[in-house]
Amino acid sequence: MTAKFDPFAAAPAQMKSWMGTSLAVAGSLEPSLVALVEVRASQINACANCINMHTADARQKGETEQRLYLLSAWREAPCYTERERAALAWTEALTRISEGHAELERARSALHDHFSKEEQVKLTLMINVINGWNRLAVGFGLWVEPAAAKAMQAAA
């Protein structure tokens, strides 16, 4: 890992806890959906580290190049399910919440149509987790190669 500042060295107990929470939340939804949420939020937040890490992980789990390449234009691409579209709309609405709440109601409506109440909470937690990682990575200049990230996850 390279970093301008290493949060894992500065606060190891908290970062280990954060990693554990992140893994638990990610494990509560289907991996393909988690991957799309992780990549889309990271694109919005311009987090090169997370885009690199999560696209590599998504490919390893069977995600197609087409779906990864089209993710920034998911509304126009026919290769996403209605459930994925609802998750992506919710991801964008929450990630861009500081820009206004205009999209929030539409996204919430689609969310209700495709996710149970429990899944809505799990998805919202997942969006919060990836936005948190984006802020850690961008804020501290983190760069972790995907193989090193896997080792860090295993250690947590």
Describe the model.
- This protein has a single domain (12-155), classed as AhpD-like, CATH 1.20.1290.10.
- It contains nine helices and no strands.
- The chain has helices spanning 7-10, 12-26, 31-44, 48-60, 65-69, 82-95, 102-114, 117-140, 146-155.
- It is mainly alpha-helical and 156 residues long.
- Helix 3 packs antiparallel against helix 4.
Secondary structure layout plus pairing:
Elements: H1 7-10, H2 12-26, H3 31-44, H4 48-60, H5 65-69, H6 82-95, H7 102-114, H8 117-140, H9 146-155
Helix pairs in contact: 2-8, 3-4, 3-6, 3-8, 6-7, 6-8
CATH class wording:
Mainly Alpha
Say what the CATH topology is.
AhpD-like
Helix content: over 70%
Helical run tally: 9
Could you name the key traits of this structure?
156 residues, mainly alpha, AhpD-like, 9 helices, 72% helix, globular
Provide a quick synopsis of the model:
This protein is an all-alpha fold and 156 residues long.
